[in-house]
Amino acid sequence: MANKMLKFVDLARAMPDKRTVDTRRQDFGEIYEEYDPIAAKAQASRCSQCGVPFCQVHCPLHNNIPDWLMLTAEGRLREAYEMSQSTNNFPEICGRICPQDRLCEGNCVIEQAGHGTVTIGSVEKYITDTAWEEGWVEPVKPVKERGESIGIVGAGPAGLAAAEELRRKGYQAHVYDRYDRVGGLMIYGIPNFKLEKEIVQRRSDLLERGGVQFHLNSDVGGALSFAELRERHDAVLIATGVYKARDIKVPGIGLDNVFAAMDFLTASNRKGLGDSVPAFDDGTLNAAGKSVVVIGGGDTAMDCVRTAVRQGAKAVRCLYRRDRKNMPGSQREVANAEEEGVEFVWLSAPEAVLGDGKAEALRAQRVHLGMPDATGRQTPQILEGSSFSVEADIVIKALGFDPEDLPRLFDTPGLEVTRWGTVKTDFSTLMTNLDGVFAAGDIVRGASLVVWAVRDGRDAAEQIHRYLQTKPAAAAVAAE
């Protein structure tokens, strides 16, 4: 380690080359180039191999980051990949879309010392992309097949991670999803410039080769009742995510050309996948030549503004009621958006959507940040008489997501939910109040990150395994 690592004193932090702004505004390709092997090894060698790896501590999956950085620096890439995938079902996806600046990289020891963080996410992406190229990525092969089957509702990251872990243990994993493709928000919500769809597709193909059975276009709670699903399987995992768009109550919000973020993003992603999208083709959900205003400050808002730029919008503005340092979204994404020509209107709150039948402008008010609230964040306070208007042919609401009413949707009124509408589970077992029904991911914790969904899916798989292992014993005791 002495001659391979701790190079941060000699080597500066260097991300992979980024495509020029003019080039990347013209298409939906990923904006970062691949590391070449020499650069990847050099950047990995900057790791200080510290005794308490805060990068690992602050990773939801607790990835063995210092270990696979050292293996990369030593040129032992296959071992680095095996180490990386041992704790993460989708390392190439997390390497692309995780907000590393808020998680592992943001807590890197050498970053705190002023030397610039190790480029953990880019190295993680490089390792796994190389593994795919070299044919090292293989489907799971259970040592022994088990007869029990598990029904998983939702083909997003939580459901897919759980399915793979359950297959690893030999269970028959059946994944049901209402959409026509596997991936959830990874396929229809996240744009290609952050996560190209073939990356998700090859992962779902791998899972299918490993024995995971997908049932797409499945309307659980409709044509397929939740009660029937429970009868089919020995256990059920609810991993639906949260898709219900939060709304805002201001005059004019119901005008034409005011859309929820997922409607806008899904139309764009479907078009990129080659689907027929009438609402895009007729210009309704196409930002070309229009002034676009996005309300919100999270990663979904960043996806919307950057998508609008690539669609050829005349102007793109992002209104957020707090300032830059208080944005919930990744600062890296904000910087990329600014480079691409997005205008951020900080400390602004929407007051009304103006127009005759359809949106023509958005009137907003200036905001002052007051005292911190119970969460520690400063409270936005409207400044009287500060109204101003911006042109808006399209207004996009990117205010976050809430859970759908699952007890009603699944026609299962006995399913307990929290006061926020998320599914209520036992903290230790992840089981709901219904025997054999578990829940994981955003439908439990609320709208969050893909990496947290992967963690929750892995944990749920382990708890389902424990439940099924003890169930026969419990039945035998009851029979006696």
Automatic annotation (TrEMBL):
Enumerate the spans annotated as FAD/NAD(P)-binding domain. Answer: 151-457
Q: Name one Pfam family in it.
A: Fer4_20
What residue ranges are annotated as transmembrane? none
- UniProt KW Iron-sulfur keyword: yes
Keyword Zinc recorded: no
Q: Which domain of life is it from?
A: Bacteria
Which positions fall inside the Dihydroprymidine dehydrogenase domain? 24-135
Q: Which UniProt keywords apply?
A: 4Fe-4S, Iron, Iron-sulfur, Metal-binding, Oxidoreductase
Q: Which GO terms describe its molecular function?
A: 4 iron, 4 sulfur cluster binding; metal ion binding; oxidoreductase activity
- What protein does this entry describe? NAD(P)-dependent oxidoreductase
